[in-house]
Amino acid sequence: MKKNKEIITMKENNNNIDKLPSENVDKLSIENKVTNEEEKRVIPYGDYHTHTTFSDGVSTLEENIQQAIKIGLKEYAVTDHGFKHRWSGITFANFQVQRRQVELFREKYPQIKIYHTVEANLMGYSGLLDIEPYKDQLDFLQMGFHKTASNESFLTWLSFTASNLIFRPSEKKIQKNTLAYLRCIDRYNLQFVNHLKYGILVDVKEIAKACVERGTKIELNGKRIFFTQQEVDDMLDCGVDFVVNSDAHSSERVGDVQLGIDFAKTHGIPLDKIVNLNKSIFD
Ligand SMILES: [Zn+2]
Ligand SMILES: [Zn+2]
């Protein structure tokens, strides 16, 4: 509402534009341009995938929260890389430190709802995530495949991760990868699956079907999206819901979901299939 009021004010100023000194006109036109560009940018209700200096982000949790408030997010989740991410995973000790920060910031910034979890790593064909035995301490669950995460054993790493990196996966391998996702979706109460097909080929249609059954959403990631048009059509046929997240690694990118929005528009995903544009993913 406040933004609308500002726009109306700007339009009223425009009507009086010939009465203003030229330097003010220049300033006004610049301000108008910025406002118009901001207007085009979609701000979601919540951003549920962001990183901080506790993993490989460059901004602190408080900087991220302040940016989230500044751009008008109602909900924000801090989701540093899971515990088995080789170089950037948050340690469980630091996760507890971060939890105390979250509790403090919830009191300091009551205007925004703050969630605390990790971006969990798929560990292998079992479908297990690297959040055991801490999963009860996470506010909600999300997962993705990261080639930099360690697996259940070296043999699992060779067959599950390394073979995805070195070889063009066979159809059989793609089905095995898919099975790992299906087991994971079945095992955990996931809110959404992160950046599907990033570093691992899977059968998107089968995963979308499982997501629909379990009420799990599929992320349109703010940094990378790999779906083909056929896969988008298959997902829509299944009736799966989507979530747009920034995957911000710096505070300036918190709430920046434009890649997901643009992808949806160019690939025929109705915006009402994106559940976090106007409401919480928990509603
Ligand atoms: Zn990721
Ligand atoms: Zn991420």
Salient structural properties:
single chain, 283 residues, alpha/beta, TIM Barrel, 7-stranded parallel sheet, 9 helices, 7 strands, 43% helix, globular, disordered N terminus, binds zinc ion
Protein architecture, described:
The two termini are 22 Å apart. The model is unreliable at 1-35 (pLDDT under 50). The longest helix is centred in the N-terminal third of the chain and has 19 residues, at 22-40. 43% of the residues lie in helices and 12% in strands. The protein is globular. The protein is an alpha/beta fold and 283 residues long. Helix 6 (171-187) runs parallel beside helix 7 and helix 7 runs parallel beside helix 8 (229-238). The protein folds into 2 domains: 1-40, no CATH class; 44-273, Metal-dependent hydrolases (TIM Barrel), CATH 3.20.20. It has 9 helices and 7 strands; from the N terminus they run ααβαβαββααβαβαβα. The relative contact order is 0.13. A 7-stranded parallel beta sheet has the order 1-2-3-4-5-6-7. The chain binds zinc ion (2 copies). The site of one zinc ion (ZN) has 4 residues, from loops.
